[in-house]
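Aim 2, interim progress: modelling of the iron/sulfur cluster-bound target.
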Amino acid sequence: TGSENNKAPGSTGGANGMNVRDAIRQPLWLLAELTYSCPLQCPYCSNPMDFAAVKSELTTEQWLSVFRQAREMGATQLGLSGGEPLARPDLIELIREARKMGFYINLITSGVGLNADKVAEFKEAGLDHIQVSFQASSEDLNNLIAGTDAFQHKIEMARAVKANGYPMVLCFVTHRQNIDQIDEILDLAINLEADYVELATTQYYGWAMHNRDQLLPLKEQLERAEAIAHRYQDEQKGNMKIYYVVPDYYEDRPKACMNGWGNVFLTVAPDGTALPCHAARELPGMQLPNVRDLSIREIWEGSNDFNRFRGFDWMQEPCRSCDERFKDFGGCRCQAYMLTGDPAKTDPVCSKSPDHHLILEAIERGRMEAAKPAEKAKPLVFRNPKNSKEICG
Ligand code: SF4
Ligand code: FES
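Predicted structure of the complex, ligand included:
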C-alpha cells in the first residue's frame, strides 16, 4: 500500500560510509511507458510477460502531473516509449506540455502509426528526437520478427524524420536471427542518412528471456559483427555515429545497470507503477508504488522499492568488498534475480560471481539450440496479448 511504500529508509551506513540517504540523487531521466499497446510482436521485447493483465492506463492529466513533478525534482530527459507510444491519442498534447516544462523529449517508436503529418506536428509541438527502431535490414526478416508488415512504412517514416530536421537515430536490436546482417543494416542506415545508429544488443528480460535460447548470438557471430561494426565506425567517422555494444553474456564484468538502482532513472509504467527500471516489476518483494497514490518525491526518496538497492549496504560478497562496486554497482538486479532467484546477488555476468557458470550454461544452451535442424528448432514466442494470457494466466 501507499503508506508502506513511504517508510523511511533503514540503512545505517556501510563500509564506505555512504548510507541510503546519502545515495539519493535526482531522477534525471524519466522514462514514461505510455502504453503496453503495440502493433508489433517482437519476441525480444523487454516488457513484462504479463503485460496483458495491465488494464488501466494513466490519463493525460495524470501523465502531465508525473512530468511536472519529475521536472520539479530535476529531471531533464523525457523518454516516451511503450509498447508503442503512438497508440496514445494524446501523444501530441503530452509532447507540447512536456516541452513547455523544459524537457528534452525523445520518442522511442517502431514508426507504425506514424505518418509524415504527425512527424511535422510533433516537431512543431517541441519534440527533440525520434528514435525509429527496425527489426532487420531486409523486408522479410524485419516483418517476420515484428510479426507484421512494417518494413516499407518504417523506411518512409525514417525519411520523414530526416526531412523534418530531427537528428536521425535508428535503432536495431541485434540477436542471433539478424546479427549476420550487420553490414546490410549499416548500409541501410547510410542509405537513410542516419546521424546515429544504435546496434543495441538484446537484453534478456521479459519476452527476450523467454526466447533466450533462440536469440542469444553465437560467439563467432559476435566476433564477425564486431569486426564489421568497427570497420564501419572508422569509415563513417565524422558522418554517422555507430554505437555497438557487446552483449553482456560475453563480457566478464557486468554493466552498471541503470547507472545504479534508483540513481538517475525513473520509469513509470502505463498503469502508473513507478519503477527503478523497466524490468523491476518482476522482482520478488517489490511493493510497486503507484503515482496515483503517492507523489514522485515520496516514491523516489521514501519508497522501499527505490531504496532497496541504493548505496552499497545491500551487497553480498564478492561485490561487498570489491573495488569495482563503485563503477558497476554489482551489475543488474533483474538479471541477478532471473538467473539466481536472489536479486541481491552479484550479477552472474561477473566472472567473480559464484554463479557465473549460469551464463556459460546459457551460452551453451543457445549453441545447442542453434545446431538443431530447422524442423526441431524451438519456435520463437511472440509478444502479443494472446501469448501473454496463455503464459501468465
Ligand atoms: Fe562488480 Fe561485484 Fe563483480 Fe566486483 S564482484 S566486479 S562489484 S559485479
Ligand atoms: Fe532492472 Fe537492470 S534491468 S536493474
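The pocket of iron/sulfur cluster (ligand 1) is lined by residues 253-254, 318-319, 322, 324-325, 328, 330-331, 346-347, 350, 352 (CB under 6 Å). Residues 219-235 form the longest helix (17 residues).
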